[in-house]
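Lesson 9: reading folded outputs for more than one chain in a single document. The general rule is that every protein is listed as its sequence immediately followed by its structure tokens, and records are never interleaved. Here is the first one.
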Amino acid sequence: MTPHRFLLITTLAVASFAAAPPAFAHGHDGPPAATCAAPGGAHGCYATIQAAIDAAQPGDTVAVFPGRYTENLTIDKPLTLAGAGENAVVLIPAISSPNPCEGSSLCGGSASSLILVRASDVTVHDLTLDGDNPALTSGIVRDGADLDARNGIIEDYYANTPFQHLTVYRVTVRNIYLRGIYASATGGTFDFHDNRVDNVQGDYYSIAMFAFAASGVFRHNIVSRANDAISANWSEGIQFLDNVITRSASGIHTDNAGGPGDVVRGNRIAHGTPGSYGIFVFVPYTAVSVTRNTVEGVDVGLSAFGQAAPVSTTFADNVVRGRRAPGSVGLFLTTDQLGYGSASVSATLQHNVISRFERGVVLESDPGNTLTLGATCNAIEGSSQAAVVAGGLAPEATIPGDPPAGSGTQAVTFSQNDIRGGAVAVDNRGADPVSAANNWWGCPGGPGAPGCGTLAGGVASTPWLAQPSACVPPSGRARRDDHDRH
């Protein structure tokens, strides 16, 4: 991330205790500060950030001078909290309460949250939140950090107020039990960009960056060591743009998407933990698009689970590379809703590169539902077992932990794809045939010929292409875009 320089404009208080605190500005980020905080009350500032917040008027900027602050903050008015830099200002919790309850982020107010937001139009930038206070001990240790804070930045959803315009940027959040940065007020809006979130993996439900029933954007963030890196539930239209995610169990997922539909574009996800997912779409109400992402080193690259309305998920122009781990899948499309029943599912697959998985594409449907897939101009290659597996799947063909299901209706079409690698090109275990004409199978002779994989079950493969499809993207192309700026 490009370093950001600060301009500190200080005026020493020389007259009396009542003298106005100094101005403090960060380049062009906003007006000079009305109040400030500095260790020991230096520079005529308040000695604690909370005291400066309490003294501020709505719309003010609270400047935070370099130092280490031990506080749990509440922001209850519109204002900007402007730190002197991620490496200059560190906030650690005064209270150790990382896991006082189950099934709640705030735990009725008993959880330790570093910043609790209770107002609209709040901006936080240029500081670090560290949930590990060396002077406190919770006994909950993750990757060497003793976690004292349950949440980093979180809205107070108990207020039942749709807080608007929560903005967080150039903030580092680390060593948190449950929620790193969370837009949790139903109906609210947010903009989280250019942040770094690390080590949010207190339990299975931990999420580094999260939004619930909100609309907004996650962009240019870097997330590492998270159980769930960036996700949204019941969204009203969220964009996930140009984020970088590493060493996490789940990269990006959107659940129950509503509003104008979620957009997942230009993200890079790599080096997942064993069994990790790259990007998945769960039970959407409106169409979701997943485009121009690079997913590498995970065990399930792209996936979609059921649907809440007759909509289709688009997967286009993605590069997805696995590590040939047992049970790994490049694209997983299923009617299963993971404990919430099942429903029909539909997706479009265009101009993707899917390589180095045990199975390139797995399509799973159950009785009473329909799986629909249109796949064109994709490279599905380097599968160690099979390029495409479809139907009500036998236990050995399912995702680990996924129950086998009887076959539902499937409407599956592959056209103008390069499908090569693996002894089996297409294994159709469903009752409905797979339409697979006009594909390149790795050799001029077509399926079953030397150099091509075989077909099993009902697969209509003629005519086939005698050379690679002209519309398939180059297999070696990586979509770096401008991720290096992070």
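And here is the second record, again sequence then tokens.
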Amino acid sequence: MCHFSKPLLSILFPAAICVALATACNSSDELVDNGATGADETAALGDNDGQRPTDSDDGLAPDLAEAVPDSQAAAQATDDTASSQPVPEEAAGALPGPLSEERQAIFMASAEDPAPSELNASRDDLEGRHYLYCDELHSYVMYEHLRDLGGGYAGVGSDQTYLYAGWMKAELVWVTDYDPWIKRLHMAYAAFFEHAESPEEFVALWRRRNRHSSEDLIRSHFEGRPDVGRIVRVWRSARGDVDLRFTRLASVLEEAGVPGFINDAEQYDWVRNLVRVGRVRPMVANLLDDEGMVGIGSAARELGVPLRALYLSNAEEYWSYTDPFRENIYAQHFDERSVVLRAAASKRRNGDYQYHIQNAQNFQAWLREPYVNRRADVWERVRVENSDHYPVQVTNEVPFDR
């Protein structure tokens, strides 16, 4: 499960983008802290060093004033095809370089959504929970569908961002979530990507034995930032669970023969480079709000980079399709190769999920049908046969009249 909403830097990047990062990463950033870290599912994962974040955590910055950039004009809801503006060409197999100052500004300038006053969930006992790691363990079943797609990526959640972006060889990455804790966690990821030259070094930074030096690295990387305490606070809460997640994920990927950013140098180099040259933007964006996702669509369209993958996890299981959700999907700069990625929990049968891929323009067409009000109107679960069955469905059927 990965995070989303119910209804409701100065990172070591090129100098040209430091100001934009500082503005973007200090905006829409406040949320009442209840200390929740998903104890019901993570009790078996370790105690995260026995440290529960408290309001007295050293270095914790005071509340920051809102500094949300002006929103870009919303894309027309009827525009579900990519523009004719050419995608910038990269040499075959070459790592993408930094964007021009003008293009970097477009990438970073779109508005974020305001942080929610509370984190909602499908059950009362999950209210207020922060999803700091992904538990979709067999998503490798989507690897061949994402391999070398290129273009842009946008999606909720944490570590799965780097898995999918690496498989795609994405050019631009919008890391979207409505929980500001997830945005801060990606800041810690950025510090580690800057420091670690190999996947082995990167994974080691999450190990318990390295927790003190890793925290020092984060503090040094963000020295002078007023929110460094908040970034460290989130990292402390996530560290133990992410460590175990990486151990499990590496084992599953190795058994499946699928490369990923934590077990393959080429995948790691691609993802690390995207972060280091400023092509990854963590931001607060809510699938049910009206600025963050629309701004991503406008930026992708202006940059001429089609959004080739939109990852929703299992968000659609939590609510019916609202008008803002539909408008957010209509606003995206999809082309004929773009896909929507989903997961649906099936833990009683396989301890994991079943997975779903749909052509993104096809999904836009379904959303325009008046009878389509929820996920089940578009696609239905398949039967999970046994504990080793992790089905992946592909939906491209045209909507039908009712």
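What the second record shows: The chain is about 35% helix and 10% strand.
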